[in-house]
Specification:
CATH topology of the largest domain: A middle domain of Talin 1
Shape: globular
Oligomer: single chain
CATH architecture of the largest domain: Up-down Bundle
Number of domains: 2
Main location: other
Radius of gyration: 22 Å
Helix content: 55-70%
Keywords: Lipoprotein, Signal
Subcellular location: Cell envelope
CATH superfamily of the largest domain: M75 peptidase, HXXE motif
Distance between the termini: 15 Å
InterPro entries: Imelysin-like, Imelysin-like_IPPA, Imelysin_sf
Pfam families: Peptidase_M75 (PF09375)
């Protein structure tokens, strides 16, 4: 979702929703609601978002170190270590990427860290051209297509067909390794930028729009961005990570459209997404959306959301296989369909029921379609 600033719509909706959606009848009530919004924002930033970004920086730096070690001594063991470092970076990215607003959406940072969904042939051609070319690598990556940036490009070089043989090749192995470490270095720069934004300017404005300069002017706008960002993340999980690649919406399955196809990491990504989503909802170990609902006498809504999250987790627990293996297996495919239905129910409840109770605006985004 694109970040919107001080539009007349924002100012109007903030006033209308504060007055009508939550039936606030006095200035004292409005002040109380703002206080609760600020609690949600402070908790989300300090205990969830900033630590997740710090961890992403650390994991991507560790990935860069392992790719460097792989290129210094290219063998099966060093490749395995680099692959594990990639999985750990991807796990953390699944938390960060769920926040679909703010610094992540500026300067195409989300796509530069993970150019997905992307056509597999496009990714392959772009990375192979980089790995076999002669142009200065870092400049080519910094100024080039998102297809040669970020975690998918690194994944292709580490997990693609005959990855070790290609890295050991006398003809192109050295250049391929240089490309790998250069992409990892670029990813470190991106993670560092994101962490800095959340620790500083944007994070300050998000946490307390009253006190810090920025485009957010009232707490409701920050909560609006926050919940809509999470909504976009839920939509992407349901449609892009399950329905489209698995052929669950009346079209043929597209296995190579699965997220992290080369590493067979797609179901692990979804698990990490959903774990992060629950943490965002609960406010980590502090004040979250759940506490807000309980404070507004909306225990039934809280019970419904947690029940739906539990339902998704229950279906995930039944999937002990890679999603790629489910297409031609009726029993496994039935389990994936149940996961999809559980995700759809969660998405509908958040969109149609949670938004009005929280008192924020459900915004149009790129995942909504035409």
């Amino acid at each position: 979702m694109n970040f919107r600033s001080t539009s007349l719509f924002r100012l109007f909706s903030a006033g209308v929703l504060a007055a009508s959606a939550l039936s606030l009848s006095s200035g004292a009530a409005a002040e109380s609601l703002e206080k609760e919004y600020l609690q949600i924002l402070q908790q989300a930033r300090s205990d969830i978002i900033v630590p997740a970004h710090a961890q992403l920086s650390a994991k991507v730096q560790a990935l860069k170190a392992k790719t460097t070690a792989l290129c210094e001594e290219t063998n099966a063991q060093s490749l395995e270590h680099a692959q594990q470092a990639w999985r750990e970076a991807m796990q953390t990215w699944m938390s960060v990427s769920l926040i679909q607003f703010g610094p992540l959406q500026e300067q195409d940072r989300r796509l530069r860290m993970q150019s997905w969904p992307i056509r597999e042939k496009l990714l392959e051609r772009a990375v192979e051209a980089l790995a076999s070319g002669s142009d200065p690598l870092q400049a080519a990556i910094n100024n080039g297509s998102i297809a040669i940036q970020g975690l998918p490009a690194i994944e292709y070089l580490l997990f693609g067909k005959n990855a070790l043989d290609k890295l050991q090749s006398a003809d192109q192995g050295a250049r391929r390794c240089q490309a790998l470490t250069a992409i990892a270095s670029h990813s470190v720069d991106l993670a560092t930028e994101l962490e800095k934004e959340w620790k500083g300017g944007f994070g300050d404005n998000f946490e307390n729009p009253f006190e810090a300069d920025g485009n957010l002017s009232v707490p409701q706008e920050s909560v609006d961005e926050y919940l809509n960002g999470l909504m976009t993340g839920i939509q992407q999980i349901t449609a892009n990570k399950v329905a489209t690649p698995m052929g669950l919406e009346g079209r043929s399955a597209k296995l190579k459209a699965l997220e992290s196809f080369h590493s067979r990491n797609s179901i692990a990504n979804i698990r990490n997404n959903l774990s992060a989503l629950r943490r965002f909802y609960m406010g980590g170990d502090g004040y979250g959306l759940d506490d807000f609902l309980l404070s507004r006498e909306s225990a039934a809504m809280h019970k419904k959301i947690t029940g739906l999250l539990d339902g998704v987790d229950a279906q995930l627990a039944q999937i002990d296989f890679a999603l790629e293996d489910a297409v031609n297996d009726a029993e496994k495919n039935a389990k994936v369909k149940k996961l999809y239905e559980a995700l759809r129910q969660l998405q509908a409840a958040v969109e149609k029921e949670l938004f009005p109770v929280i008192g924020v605006t459900r915004d149009f985004n790129s995942e909504d379609g035409d």
